[in-house]
Amino acid sequence: MSTATQDKGVAERSMGLGLRWLNKLAGSDLLDRIRIRKQVERALFSGTKHGFRSATTAGRTFKAATNLTGPARQKTGKPRSLFDISPDDEQQMLQEGVRDFAEAKVRPIAKQADFDRSTPEEVLSQANELGVNMLGVPEELGGVMHEQAAVTSVLIGEAFAHGDMGVAYAALAPGAVATAIGHWGTPEQEATYLPAFTGEDTPAAALAILEPRPLFDPLKLETTARKDGEDWVLNGVKSLIARPKECELFLVAAEAEDLGPALFVIEPGADGLEIEDEPAMGLRPAATGRLLLKDVKLPGTALLGEGKREDYVECVQRARVAWCSLAVGTAQATLDYVKQYVNERTAFGEPISNRQGVAFAVSDIGIESEGMRLATYRAASRADQGQDFAREAAMARRLCAQKGMQIGSEGVQLLGGHGFVKEHPVERWYRDLRAAGVMEGALLV
Amino acid sequence: MINLEIPKKFKPLASQANQVATEVFRPISRKYDEAEHSYPKELDMLASLIDGMNEGSDIGGAGAAGVRRESNGDADAGNRNGSNLSTVLGIIELCWGDVGLLLSMPRQGLGNSAIASVATEEQLEKYGGKWAAMAITEPEAGSDSAAIRTTADLSGDEYVLNGEKIFVTSGDRADLIVVWATLDRKVGRAAIKSFIVERDNPGLKLDRLEHKLGIRASDTANFTLQNCRVPKEALLGNPEIDTKAGFGGAMQTFDNTRPLVAAMAVGVARASLEETRKKLEEAGVEIGYDTPALSQSAAAARFLEMESDYEAAHLLTLQAAWMADNSKPNSLQASMAKAKAGRTCVDVALGCVELCGSVGYTENELLEKWARDAKILDIFEGTQQIQLLIVARQLLGKSSSELR
Fold it and tell me: Strand A247-256 vs strand A204-208: parallel, antiparallel, or unpaired?
């Protein structure tokens, strides 16, 4: 069976189910009674437009362009002798570029992107032009960074998320796949996939680790990779993937037979690989979805690198640091926004910021967001210097999950009822900040 | 180039301080907690050793030595790791040993810090090498240090001090007391100056020593100043009442000393965490960094939560000191560090006692002592609430009359 016919079959089957459900709903008075017919009709429109569950369709053909004799790797930096919190000149330039972009291009469209569950192509390609997706590509394959760039990635993630976390997720997700292949891929995988990430037309791609269940532990995957002769057979479900419909490449984590958790390169179009829409409370501009794997057969070469456990663990750690960088940016956005609001909003005849009950909440946002930032920088800087950063990544994640959410909540609280309505962005940040403690994989530094 | 690791050049200092903490402080920790008000004579020899360490400019400073700011803006001289950072690192290690004993270290008082920070060359010469305590708080003026009532009246070549001072750390043991007094109570902050009073001045009368919740090795004295006469030259800093400069002079000391108190809190928190981890692991609790905290045992999850707060407090403290070393204005970061470290230290030390149960609560171990010691660190050098006030004013661009 060709991919196309199978695609149609699955799409029709699932569409049929969905339409039956919708038809039943449309005939009910309930919609009119609770006045949501318009919304449902719009959902119907986009539902039929995108399909409820669909097979993945093959994207571009990736072909090894160069012949590498060994893996190309970015070097770790020399151990730094002095304590320092200032970015270097190059980092500062990149940081400022992304900061300006986030302010001019991302923040203004964030509200609509959240509503549409879609980030405009234009914004994604502009972000790509800034080079955000090639930080982990070794120089030999067209990359620009000679040394590992975890700190640079953190600075960029932070600046981007100051514009919007969901748009940042949509824009930065492909880079995670490039970074993973650049760090741990075989020479052949590097030569095959990485050149595409250095050009203008970067493929959408996703690093899929998270699975939909409570107390998910990335070291105890339920997605399995079974050996079948030379081949691998994968089964499982992955959650909260950015823009799965557009993805032309997946890196999927699975418990591999005889190996333990490892990553597998999968091109869409493979038999048994399906995507399903999975809207969440936040990260909506990334149009999150699930990836379903049912007896997906992959060649032996699909295993990323040598499938070493330590590579996978490092990948999990790097992802956590990346999500921290987004949380730091969103926390800073919250601080900047509430500062202005509480100074301008008056009650009882004076700005509400003249009251300690309000002002101290702002202090706490400032203190905790700064703590989050420093912990995140520390983890990234250790990674760049080739030092173990398991502890530092865990510390940063704990802070960003907990304090980040506190900040998100306090941001809404300080605006009172106004914080609860969509006229102000704080309710969006509240929804987005919850992600930092939930997400695994998906982004990398 | 971003790097938040302890610089290599300070590692010998930190390990030296750690040895002092391990070999000198810890073994006598319980003894002087029980024998409140008796002088820890073991510290005399140590103090001389530390004086020696302080001689070097960059590498020195294991204790609360003065933290003089490099005021000549050599901004483009590049990144500096200097005495503020090294002092903070030393204090963390020593307070990992015992914070009460650190506060009792001869010649390492807050008064020394004030003198070293703002004294003239002549004053440095006259008072250098002596042990100086700091007297700010009064029965009616705590956090509100601008409201102090102790007066200083110029009479000929002398100032005459009158008033009452409480909570003077090492007040009985020190050679000098740096006393805050007002030249003119009508003027407010700008008239507040500090004066160096010799401990044997007949006008300085010790009322009593306090019995305390923690840091019992450190004596806390209350004084009455009754027509206490000091030479004109005993005034620290500028004798003019400059209403524009306001409180700046006096408060500037705090920008430098708050990171030091934050460092004390970081040290106590680390001591509690390390001991608790050991005990939990002995009890079979595994604490991992790669497994999500909430997928581990409740004890492990709580531990990781506390450790992450410790991490933030530690890094905020290093940041504040690093900024001082690099002549960056750090009053915001100094208060952030003090606020975070102060509350973290209390939460961590008390949380560790809870995790360790009766082992943590009883006097067989030091955990209960650290939990008692911790509380003062969220109070002195500006309470939690004062730090939040300073941070809020800075973030919101508020004056002290707008946000009171």
Answer: parallel
Query: Tell me, what's the pLDDT at A47?
Result: 47
Domains, in order of start, for chain A: 89-203 (1.10.540.10), 224-302 (2.40.110.10), 309-437 (1.20.140.10)
Decide if A89 touches B, using CB distance below 8 A.
no
Contacts 24+ apart (CB under 8 A), A90-99: A90/A152, A91/A151, A91/A152, A91/A155, A91/B2, A94/A130, A94/A131, A94/A152, A94/A155, A94/A156, A95/A155, A95/A156, A95/A158, A95/A159, A96/A159, A97/A130, A98/A130, A98/A132, A98/A155, A98/A156, A98/A159, A98/A160, A99/A159, A99/A162
Cα of A278 to nearest chain B Cα, Å: 23
Q: Which residues pair with B160 in a beta bridge?
A: B153, B229
Say whether B2 and A368 touch across the interface (CB within 8 A). Answer: no
- pLDDT for B395 equals 98
Domains of chain B: 8-122 (1.10.540.10), 131-236 (2.40.110.10), 248-396 (1.20.140.10)
Residue B304: which of A335, A374, A398 has the nearest Cβ? Answer: A398
Cross-strand bridge partners of residue A206? A250
- How many angstroms separate the CA atoms of B250 and B118, rounded? 9
Contact between B89 and B18 (Cβ < 8 Å): no
Q: How many Å apart are CA B363 and CA B369, to the nearest integer? A: 8
Cα–Cα–Cα angle for B60, B340, B295, nearest 5°? 115
Residues 6+ apart with CB under 8 A from A304: A180, A181, A184, A185, A186, A189, A251, A262, A263, A264, A265, A311
Which residue reads 């791609």 in tokens?
A205
* Minimum distance, in Å, between the CA of residue A402 and any CA atom of chain B: 9
Partner residue opposite B336 with nearest CB, options A151, A351, A370: A370
Other CB atoms within a 10 A radius of the CB of residue A10 amount to 16
Judge: A83–B397 Cβ closer than 8 Å, yes or no: no
* pLDDT confidence tier of residue B18, bands split at 50, 70 and 90: very high
- DSSP string for residues in B148-183: ---EEEEETTEEEEEEEEEEEETTTT-SEEEEEEES
Mutate to test the interface with B, among A80, A81, A82 (most CBs of B within 10 A): A82
Q: Which residues contact B363 (CB under 8 A, 6 or more apart)?
A: B30, B369
Ramachandran sector of residue B86 (left: φ over 0; alpha: ψ -120 to 50; beta: rest): alpha
Query: CA separation (Å) from B110 to B85, B107, B115, B201?
Result: 17, 9, 9, 20
Q: How far apart are CA B115 and CA B127, in angstroms?
A: 8
The answer, for A336 touching chain B at a CB cutoff of 8 Å, is no
Q: What is the pLDDT of residues B294-350, one digit of tens each?
A: 999 999 999 999 999 999 999 999 999 999 999 999 999 999 999 999 999 999 999
Residue among B224, B124, B230, B127 at smallest CA distance from B174: B127
Tens digits of residue pLDDT in A199-210: 888 999 999 999
CA gyration radius for chain A?
22
With CA atoms as reference, report the closest residue to A439 among A165, A251, A236, A186.
A165
Please identify among residues 143-162 of chain A the ones whose CB lies closer than 8 Å to any CB of chain B.
151
Q: What is the pLDDT of residues B121-155, one digit of tens each?
A: 899 899 988 999 999 999 998 888 778 999 999 99
Quote ipTM for the complex: 0.92
Chain A residues within 8 A of B322 when measuring between CB atoms: 83-85
- Please indicate whether, in this complex, the C-beta atoms of B4 and A377 are within 8 angstroms of each other: yes
Closest approach of chain B CAs to the CA of A244, in angstroms? Answer: 26
**Does B381 qualify as catalytic in the annotation?**
yes
Closest CA to B232 of B136, B160, B181, B295: B160
Helices of type H across A56-164: 89-101, 107-116, 121-129, 150-163
Whether A399 sits inside 8 A of B293 (CB atoms) is: no
